[in-house]
Amino acid sequence: MKSQDIQLNYKISVNFDYRLIFSEGVFSKDNSTLDKILNEGSAQGGRPRSLVFLDEGLSLAHPGLRKKIEDYFFHYRESLTLTGSPLLIPGGEKSKQNISLFKWVIESIQNANICRHSYVIVVGGGSVIDLVCFAASIVHRGIRQIRIPSTVLAQDDAGIGIKNGIDAFNQKNFLGSFYPPFAVINDAQLLSTLSQENWISGIAEAVKVALIKDPEFFDWILKNLYPLKNRNLEAIRKLIQRCAELHLLHIRTSGDPFEMESARPLDFGHWTAHKLETLSDYTIPHGHAVATGMILDLFYSKRMGWTSAADVEKISNCLSQLGFTLWQPLLLKKNPKTLRYLILDGLNEFKEHLGGILNITLLKRVGEPFQVQQIEEDQIIAAIDEFRNETT
Amino acid sequence: MKSQDIQLNYKISVNFDYRLIFSEGVFSKDNSTLDKILNEGSAQGGRPRSLVFLDEGLSLAHPGLRKKIEDYFFHYRESLTLTGSPLLIPGGEKSKQNISLFKWVIESIQNANICRHSYVIVVGGGSVIDLVCFAASIVHRGIRQIRIPSTVLAQDDAGIGIKNGIDAFNQKNFLGSFYPPFAVINDAQLLSTLSQENWISGIAEAVKVALIKDPEFFDWILKNLYPLKNRNLEAIRKLIQRCAELHLLHIRTSGDPFEMESARPLDFGHWTAHKLETLSDYTIPHGHAVATGMILDLFYSKRMGWTSAADVEKISNCLSQLGFTLWQPLLLKKNPKTLRYLILDGLNEFKEHLGGILNITLLKRVGEPFQVQQIEEDQIIAAIDEFRNETT
Question: Can you tell me the distance from the alpha carbon of A26 to that of A41, in angstroms, rounded to the nearest whole number?
């Protein structure tokens, strides 16, 4: 540094208000929650304006929902403005790869004249939320967002965080931002039409967060495997609420909500999961891929002498009893040119995504995560074999 | 709100480190500032990697600069990695309207395999900085950015903030984000080739911030009109440093760095400025438009009885002596269909940009800004007439 240099170091602190709400029948006329929330924002000389995006799959499963949303805003017309009929948008992982869809969302926000004090409301699964919230986060440098997630996975994990994004260049979430939503409203009534596969998918993320953060919560899950699997609403509500709280606690207290450092403790089981999803062309749902990813990492950790066989068995049994097929044949698929397992490429991709340093979360025992900076290739291959032999 | 609702209110706090550096000859081999800054970031298992974007106009004016940047990284090759030759990018306001250019920046970042712990360095004027930093802020949800602004305007205003953006749908900064750069390095040597028009353009923003925030600084400017106008390097360095510090002070202490509320005290003179720039197809440079915008608002404020004639005259004289042509004939151009002044549309556009509420900063006297929530149309038209009569 030259002697005449002047260096001024500043800290810039930004505070976001984040409202996490659990309500029932959020678009029923006798439920004023949404009306109240939308009017909590600072005044803008009139009724707050809202543009609603509605997941097409959800709309098909709940044929009256779109009309119900319109009726809700009509009922509260003294205090709310809906800019037009809710816009239907295709959901699922593939939507995040669709750049035209992303552009259409931006155009729709522009057409509706949504300003920084108006709202974009998105009702749907995690992919639709990611896509719409990313678009809203870059219009006018960020428009207020209300997330109303409609799957277990979105209500307890994907939809309640502060990240968003779309895929590009064959990389998951290559484009995206950190942008805390104005509010998240979890409504268990929206879950009623989920397929069983998607129902349990969200439970895998709750198991994950319990394993990392809260042994008591894991014990509670073990005691409630039957009601959780069999769609008991009271049980799933409790699971979602605890899981969502643990996520928000992590975001608030980690000291690094925008993930400027390398640690990602919540990504337990995720390097395998991301790769399995891509290799399967997204036919393996996210939670199922995470279940497999956690078990693979546990088998690896057992081989390395870090986790007991009893703990690995207890966690495997938990996931099996919830209905997960843990072993995925794709784990063994070899690249014909190199004879390497394709799954191993996931490690490098995860490394680049994290920012150059590999940081894999493993588990000593329930509630005791730790980080490793490398995975030994011959040991992970041996772990894959052991995984197959012991679970099939 | 339904009685069984649960509402959890959280605060999410995010802290950014922001380094503002004044150095000379930042790409001279004997200047280790950039090397030091790039190595201040958290480790990534090797030498930090950098991708450099270089403003084409700057490169033309400083023909050796691109090679000099390459030589710099070669000299520091033990501790730095350059991903490739600096990429030339066209500058000026029109670049921000070019969505293909924006896509090309994203593709270039992807091609260079820039991760979240690598750097995008941008050397150029405010528009190139806005464009490149917006792209970098959404790749992998935000890549570290180093801004090296090359105009007076970029060094004291446009380049030292935390905003970025591009234009879309004929609206300035329709897309963009708030993303504090890792560092800003101001190097007065880069200013030597600026046209006189661009040289004084940046001084207008310093006059603005002095008028709003720092009467002593305004007095200093009044005493240094001749050296400032005549490109005395010592004077311009002092002006840039004080102006940049006042900006950062505002961002840090306003309590609202991401502008979630409506107030924009730094936008004094800017509603007229934005509109004048568009109406002139960007032939009126930003600082010149701001100078005109401030004087129009002062004439309005004088008519309303809020500002003394003496203050308006003092500020007008200051700007005139710096070389600004204050009266712009475009202020009078009428829309043939409506007979309305086109400039008045700027008020509505500014209102939407702010988020639905008009908030115009005016000046009681130097150092005493205040906000009004409306502008009376007949009075502003009368102010335009008075402005023309008194300054032409």
Answer: 19
AA identity, residue A66: R
Q: Find out whether B282 and B98 touch, Cβ atoms under 8 Å.
A: no
For residue B29, give the 3-state DSSP assignment. Answer: coil
What is the rounded distance in angstroms from the CA atom of residue B349 to the CA atom of residue B131?
Answer: 22
Rounded CA separation A294/A312 (Å): 10
Q: What's residue A3's pLDDT?
A: 56
pLDDT in tens, A147-193: 999 999 999 998 999 999 999 998 889 999 999 999 999 999 999 99
Residue spans of alpha helices (H) in B65-214? 65-75, 99-111, 126-138, 152-153, 196-213
B317 Cβ contact list (under 8 Å, min separation 6): none
Reduced to 3 DSSP states, what percent helix, strand and coil does chain A have, rounded to the nearest 5?
Answer: 50, 20, 30
Q: Which helix (H) or strand (E) holds B324?
A: none
Contact between chains at B357 and A44 (C-beta distance less than 8 A): yes
Cβ atoms of B111 and B139 within 8 Å: the answer is: no
Q: Provide the b/e sequence for B30-53 (b: ≥16 CB within 10 Å).
A: ebbbbbebbeebeebeebbbbbbb
Chain B residues lying within 8 Å of A9, measured CB to CB: 17-20
Provide the whole-model pTM.
Answer: 0.94
> Residue B130: its chain A contacts at CB < 8 A?
none
Collapsing DSSP states into helix, strand and coil, what is residue A283?
coil
Say what the ipTM of the complex is: 0.93
Q: Are A115 and A83 in contact (CB under 8 A)?
A: no
Report the DSSP beta bridge partners of residue A88. Answer: A54
Minimal C-alpha gap between B89 and chain A (Å): 21
Q: Which two tokens stand for residue B201?
A: 């353009």
Taking only the tens place, the pLDDT of each residue in B94-127 is 899 999 999 999 999 999 999 888 999 999 999 9
